[in-house]
Amino acid sequence: MIIFHNAKFVAVNEQNDTFEQLWIDDGRIVYTGPAKEIPDNAEKIDLHGAFVTPGLIDIHAHVGTWAEVTEDINDANEYSEPFTPLMHALDSVDIRHFSFQHALEGGVTTVQTGPGSANVIGGIWSILKTAGPTLASRILVERSGLKGALGENPKNVFGNQYKRKPMTRMAIAQLLRDGFQRATRLSEEEKSKHVKHNLELRPFIEVLRGEMPLRLHCHRADDIMTAIRIAKEFNVQLHLEHCTEGHMIVDAVKASGFNATVGPYMLTPSKYETRNSTPAIAKIFKEHAIPFAIMTDHPFVPIQYLKYCASEAIRYGLDEETALKSITIHAATLVQLDHRIGSLEIGKDADFVVWSHPIFETEAKVLQTYVNGKKYYEAE
Amino acid sequence: MTRYINGLVFNSETRSFENTDFEVHGQYFTQLNTAETEINLHGYYITPGFIDSCSQIGLAEIGIRWEGDDSFEFESHLQYSVIDGIYPFDTAFKNALSHGITASHIVPSPKSLVGAKTAIIHHTPSTVDEMVIKKDFGYSFSIGQNAKSTFFTAQKKPLTRMGIAKIMRETLQQIQEQEPLIRKILVRAHKAVDMELIVRLQQEFPFEFHIIHGTEIPLLEGASFNTVIAGPTFRYIEHNEMMALSPKLYSQLAAREIPFVFCTDHPVSSSTHLALEACLAVREKLPRQDALYALTTGAATLLGIEHLTGSIKDGLLADFVVWNKHPLDLDAKVVATFIKGKKEYSWEEGITI
């Protein structure tokens, strides 16, 4: 048993609780609340008046898969085909990549990572803790979604550079539909075979069965609507990734009933489809009760700056409470892991961050980061 | 002819916010006491306009690709000037105004070993000639990885640091002969080894050298440098030379008493993140007032325009920003931005400020 005390703990639960002691045992939280008598056998850790939040969660990043410095080993996009449903994050993540260390330095304890946006169908994403001795020990969800991309990126890579299909948004939509159409036509026996032997249509079948969502990269309003249209056609669960122009068609996004991960609006728009990017989207989605999380899209915004993405949303009118939730409990809820991570509550994983000041103050610096009750980062 | 009263105004000499009144007459700050109108700034913080000390704003337009990118020319020529490539209606100017940036020092892309004559411009979208505060300020270079990779990609020739140094020396010689007005040399460099070249050049040539980025300066013991245009640190690590990239750089420079100013190198980091860059410096223990000084008067002094702008002082151009809270609070918002006495941006329509 380890007992942390002398800090302001922010639970980030429904009641916005703050408390005085955090007890953990075997990597789990076993008590949160007012100071109480400490058992003799417990280790007591004094946090010297620091501020503690749950570990931060980034549910759209390419941590460990994107070659950030040595471009020749980029394992985030399988550029050979626009349709690569059998690519899997776990086959490209390098747990020794420095981006995991940067994540811990910024207080990020969980990431959803995997293929990028070059391909119409890119592959499967996974959800991982940012620390732990082996890849297997870090896995929270092995198959957390089928990642696809609409709009400029596949058009640019295949149409523009390779002079092949897809050159247009029409072909992109057709390639996306193709997987679902073929999967729908299979007999139950063939479906089981595809799933069992990891054949090409496996991810589509899993999405059709509701075992994981379709995660579509969509920036422009037309791409967002295409994503929604296709998801409705096949009656599958969709998660809108980026949703950059979502504030311009906010009623349609709301009506779709789907969730969104917004960002990376901390980037200068570098292409036409992101020119309407704004941090105000968070506030607008909040006002319309559209569930959302805030992302970095690491490495595009470095993962250690996830907190600053939430801060920027506050500058553009989002309340502090929702901003913090968008990188903790709301992010956890969107990936259906709120029973394990995202808040400091009894029974959850002991993932938390010790800050020098309240998280959104300019001076706030990560002093320590804990994953599963173990300290993996400490500031010099 | 407007008097602004009761605001907390940043005083560049004391580097603190003081409750003072100031007056704007036409384009300038004055103390004529002839104001016809009075505006109450009670509860607001007022700073001089922020200056981005290295930016490609207008030169590399945001939201589009090659069509709006005039930041890099492969074959170098001494006569290139950024003035000829600035598009005044780049959306980025509006964004910058909404974050309190009133002027930028325009420097070509890091891809250019030999760059161009730089310029300092106001963010007042009109014609570039009207926007210019100072043209032909300095000559820009980029050494190390970026310059090398540009040459390698084009298979121009295998270029080493030796080759870069040779080209730099030749070009500096030409500048000395053909551009007598240029005294400042701006050099983009990340690695310590490249900064060592600059140490040598400082001894060989009579120019005033300024490093842009300076990522590994903390590794160099004892070397002295003119004001460094440091950062940006809020950006991804693009290549191997930037592995040490960290906002700790600012406090390390301060500890070494090497003067520095902030930049975004927009669009590398967005110009809207200039204050954020200073916030990261504050997180790493740089005093807030020193960060604010570097964003305003310090930048103007580096750029040789301190007699025109960069402070709220009689006789200077009335470039100032009204904030709803301390500008280095992460959630501070710009209420209004004024350039040459004219309100170029306000948070809400109809706001009286």
Automatic annotation (TrEMBL), chain A:
- Spans through the membrane: none
- Work out whether the entry's keyword set contains Hydrolase: yes
Cite the Amidohydrolase-related domain residue spans from the record. Answer: 51-374
Keywords of this entry: Hydrolase
One Pfam short name: Amidohydro_1
Q: What one GO molecular function would you report for this record?
A: N-acetylglucosamine-6-phosphate deacetylase activity
Q: Which GO terms describe its biological process?
A: N-acetylglucosamine catabolic process
State the family it belongs to: Belongs to the metallo-dependent hydrolases superfamily. NagA family.
- For this entry, the protein name equals Amidohydrolase family protein
Can you name the source organism?
Lysinibacillus pakistanensis
From TrEMBL, chain B:
Q: Which residues form a coiled coil?
A: none
Domain Amidohydrolase, chain residue ranges per copy: 278-342
UniProt-recorded Gene Ontology molecular function terms: hydrolase activity, acting on carbon-nitrogen (but not peptide) bonds
Cross-referenced InterPro entries, in alphabetical order?
Answer: Amidohydro_3 (IPR013108), Metal-dep_hydrolase_composite (IPR011059), Metal_Hydrolase (IPR032466), Metallo-dep_Hydrolase (IPR051781)
Q: Which top-level group of life is the source organism from?
A: Bacteria
The residue ranges crossing the membrane are: none
**Matching PANTHER family:** ALPHA-D-RIBOSE 1-METHYLPHOSPHONATE 5-TRIPHOSPHATE DIPHOSPHATASE (PTHR43135)
Protein name (database record): Amidohydrolase family protein
In its UniProt entry, the species of origin is given as Lysinibacillus pakistanensis
